[in-house]
Design a protein that fits this description.
transferase; alpha/beta; ornithine carbamoyltransferase activity; globular; 311 residues; 5-stranded parallel sheet; 9 strands; 12 helices; Orn/put_carbamltrans
Length: 311
């Protein structure tokens, strides 16, 4: 039976942990995996523009010996020509997997239910699982054993926040999420993550007070306006500016590293000097996108390596 990666919420904790270990191994021993996807073709169906996602998947698949076909839904004038379910069925005739970067999570669900090949969520309005996987690889490389550590997320409660909460729950990592009023993450996912973390002796706190960000190991932020949101910056700048990640917040919180999924807007959600500082893990996160995604592909498409993604 095929497995999709739409969100890590329905994946086992052992598998998520195993993927992190597998990704780190592919990073340090690439020769072991050079032909792991030989003969496999992946279709990358993108409704949204991308830098890191497209390039990291394309080069990563090449490194594994596979081939990626990129389809730009907007630029290629594919949008509206065919129903998504028919496209999914067609993709399954030719490719061994589908990578989809889409506007709505429901599009991913339709793709997954109308094809026999795995579907990987490369970003949607609700989740960004490949980014969260790369982030926890980066955290493990930076601070070691993850269980019991604390990650703070500061800014807009969005798809990245949701996926960070899910992987944090699997890994037993505490979270403090600080957002302006009205910008908190989805309460249903907060409740789910809190329940999972409670079984592991951990906690997740959502606050609207930036001064609650204390005693953390790392701080993470994201852009204040998500891709596709046409809200003028001036309308929200005053609301978000108290949540800027800067040197003072790093010092007050005790965080040793700072993270951002990019694109980053210097001196808005994060100071430019912090981006360029020794505390920054931003480019390490970007590199780890490729290694994390390669681990997912190995798990989904190559039975030889599937068992490695079980811890």
């Amino acid at each position: 039976m095929k497995q999709d990666l739409l969100t890590f919420k329905n994946w086992s904790t052992d598998t998520v942990k195993g993927l992190i270990n597998l990704a780190i191994d592919t990073k340090h021993h690439p020769q072991k995996y050079a032909n792991a996807l030989e003969g496999n073709a992946l279709i990358a169906f993108f409704e949204k523009p991308s830098l890191r996602t497209r390039v990291s998947f394309d080069i990563g698949i090449q490194k594994l010996g596979g081939h990626m076909v990129y389809l730009d839904s907007q630029g290629g004038k594919l949008a509206g020509r065919e129903d998504i379910q028919d496209m999914a069925a067609n993709f399954g005739c030719w490719a061994q997997g589908i990578i989809a970067r889409v506007n709505r999570h429901s599009t991913l669900e339709t793709l997954a239910s109308h094809t026999h090949v795995p579907v990987i969520n490369a970003l949607c309005d609700q989740y960004h699982p490949c980014q969260a996987l790369a982030d926890f690889i980066t955290l493990k490389e930076s601070i070691g054993e993850l269980h019991g550590k604390t990650l703070a997320y500061v800014g807009d409660g969005n798809n990245v926040t949701h996926s960070l909460m899910i992987v944090a729950a699997h890994m037993g990592v505490n979270m403090i999420i600080a957002t302006p009023e009205g910008r908190a993450p989805d309460k249903r996912l907060v409740d789910w993550a809190q329940d999972i973390l409670a079984t592991k002796g951990g906690h997740l706190t959502v606050t609207h007070n930036i001064h609650d960000v204390k005693h953390v190991d790392a701080i993470y932020t994201d852009t204040w306006i998500s891709m596709g949101d046409d809200t003028p910056l001036e309308q929200i700048k005053s609301m978000f500016m108290p949540f800027q990640v800067n040197e003072a917040l790093m010092s007050d919180s005790g965080a040793s590293i700072v993270m951002h999924c990019q694109p980053a807007h210097r001196d808005l959600e994060i100071t430019g000097t912090l981006i360029d500082s020794p505390a920054s893990r931003i480019m390490q996160q970007a590199e780890n996108r490729m290694h994390g995604q390669n681990a997912v592909l190995l798990h989904l498409l190559n039975n030889e390596f599937k068992e490695l993604a079980h811890g």
